[in-house]
């Protein structure tokens, strides 16, 4: 499973903010921490806010803070906000062949295992026991 940049940024930002839910960090602070543009990270943060995981504020005391549930939110919950749903991807060249079909079945199984692992790891677990 290869994750898009936005997905990784969503995971990084959520975990960073969930470390201390009382703390507020600006998009610029988070972007600097991760070495990315604040514009790109702001889009990711808006998606996380729409999902109810973070809350953004404006003004001098503005920024983002975590408002989700660290125990119930899994890594897969965040990944699902940014990645296409399983089975909705376009067919790859060669998948219609016997070998291509066999390979696709193996790759699908790998994706299913990765998804199950991401569903089994909560933010709380990640923050208590970084793997």
SSE string: HHHEEHHH
Low-confidence stretches: none
Looking at the structure, what is the overall shape?
elongated
Largest sheet: 2 strands, antiparallel
Strands of the widest sheet, in order across it, are: 1-2
Distance between the termini: 18 Å
What does this structure look like?
- This protein has 131 residues and is mainly alpha-helical.
- It is 55% helix and 6% strand.
- The protein has helices spanning 5-18, 27-34, 38-50, 75-82, 98-120, 123-128; strands at 54-57, 63-66.
- A two-stranded antiparallel sheet has the order 1-2.
- α1 (5-18) runs antiparallel to α4 and α4 (75-82) crosses α5 (98-120).
- The longest helix has 23 residues, at 98-120.
- The radius of gyration is 17 Å and the shape is elongated.
């Amino acid at each position: 499973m290869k994750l898009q940049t936005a997905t990784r940024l969503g995971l990084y930002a959520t975990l960073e903010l969930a470390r201390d839910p009382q703390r507020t960090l600006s998009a610029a602070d988070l972007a600097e921490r991760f070495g990315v543009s604040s514009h790109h990270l702001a889009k990711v943060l808006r998606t996380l806010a729409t999902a109810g995981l973070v809350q953004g504020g404006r003004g001098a005391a503005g920024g983002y803070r975590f408002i989700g549930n660290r125990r119930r939110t899994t890594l897969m919950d965040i990944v699902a906000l940014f990645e296409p749903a399983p089975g909705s991807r376009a067919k790859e060249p060669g998948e219609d062949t016997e070998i291509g079909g066999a390979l696709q079945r193996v790759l699908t199984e790998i994706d299913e295992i990765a998804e199950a692992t991401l569903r089994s790891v909560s933010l709380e677990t990640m923050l208590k026991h970084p793997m």
